[in-house]
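Notes from the 1:1 (GR / supervisor)

We went over the backlog. Supervisor wanted to see one worked example end to end before approving the batch request, so GR pasted a single chain during the call. The sequence is below; no edits were made to it. Supervisor asked that the structure be written out right there so they could see what the output format looks like.
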Amino acid sequence: MAIVVQKYGGTSVGDTDRMKVVADRISRAHRDGDQVVVVVSAMGKSTDELVTMASRISEHPPERELDILLTSGERISMSLLAMALHARGVPAKSFTGSQAGIITDAVHGRARIVDITPGRVKEALDGGNVVIVAGFQGVSQDTKDITTLGRGGSDTTAVALAAALDADVCEIYTDVDGVFTADPRIVPAARKLEIVSYEEMLELAAQGAKVLQVRSVEFGRNHGVRIHVRSSFSYTTGTWVGPEEDKVEDAIISGVAHDTSEAKVTVHAVPDRPGVASRLFTTLADDNINVDMIVQNVSSDGRTDISFTLPRGDADKARGILEPLADDIGAQSVRVDEDVAKVSLVGAGMKTHPGVAAKMFGALSAAGVNIEMISTSTIRVSVVVAKSDVETAVQAVHAVFGLGGDATIEEG
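Structure output shown during the call:
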C-alpha cells in the first residue's frame, strides 16, 4: 500500500465544482488502495481578498493577527473537500497545519518548518481515512502562535509531509501540465520537460518559475522525495523532479525563468573599507529582508557603488532602513528601481559547455535588450533587465538555445 501525498493549488479548488472534480480524483486513488494525504491551498484568490480586507482595516496590521486571518482560507478548503469526499462514501479527516504537526519558527509571514510530528495524520491514515491538511501554515515551536509559510507555502507543506511520512511520491497538482522550458504564456512554443533534477528545479524556482516554491524543492532534495508536477485537469504524466541520475536526456539547458517581482537597490558612493558591506547586509538580514543578486563596482577614489536585488514588497522597508544607515556610514545616497525584471538561463549541462553565457548575452544584444546586472552559478546565468524588456528577453534566449516544442497549457 503506497503513501501518496497530493497537493492542490488555489486554481484546482477555485470553486465548489472544481473541488468536486478534485474529490473524484482523490476517491480514485483511495479506491486503488493508496493511503492518501491531501494538502490544499485556499480557494482561488481568497488569500488576496483577505489581504485586501486587512489593508482596509489597517495600513500595518499586526503580523500575528494577519497570519491568523490568512490561514482561514486553507481551513475553508480542507473542510469543504472533506465534506465532498464523505459525500462520495470516502472517509476523510481534515487537519489544520498545527493539528497535523507542522512546527515552525516564530517568524510571521515567512516561517520556516523546523519539525513535523505527524502522529495524528498517521493515526487517521491507519484508520482508513483520506487525510486533508491545510497548507501554508503551522504553529510556532516557541510562541505557540499560528504562522504562515509565505507565498507558495502549501508546496512546502506537501513535500515536508511526504518526507515525514516516507511517502512514495508527492504529487503537486496545478493548472499547467508540468514544468516547461519557459512560461508558455510568454513563449507559446515552450516544451514540457519530462524530468528535471532537484538542482535545476531549485534554480528555476528561485529565479521566478512559479510551478514550485523553492523550499519545497529543498525538502525534496534533502529527503529524497520524488515530486511529480502535473495538471489537476487531466490524467496525463507531468514533470518528475528528482536526482540528477534520473535524467535520461543530456540537455545542456533545461529552461528560461523570469521574475518581475524584484526591485534593484543601489547604495551610491559607499566608503570602500572593511566592514561596510557587512553592516549593510547584516542590517537587512536582521529585518528578515532577503537579498538576491549583489554587484559591487570597482573602487574609485576610495568609494564604490553596491547594487542588489530584493523582493519588491520589501523595497520601501529596505529604503527606510538604508537611508539613515547610508548617512551613518558616509554613503552618498540610496536609489530604488522597481521597474526591473530578472531573466535566468538554467541547465546542469552548462557546467561542461563553455560559451553559454556569451551566447545568451549575444541573443539579448541582438534583441536590443540592455543588461543591468549579471549573476552566475555553475548551472545558471541570470541578468537584470528593464521590466518592459522581459518578454523580449525571454523569447530571445529561449529561441537562441532551441528550446521550443509543442506546449499546451490549461487556463485556470
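Supervisor's comment: Confidence is low (pLDDT under 50) at residues 406-412.
Batch request approved.
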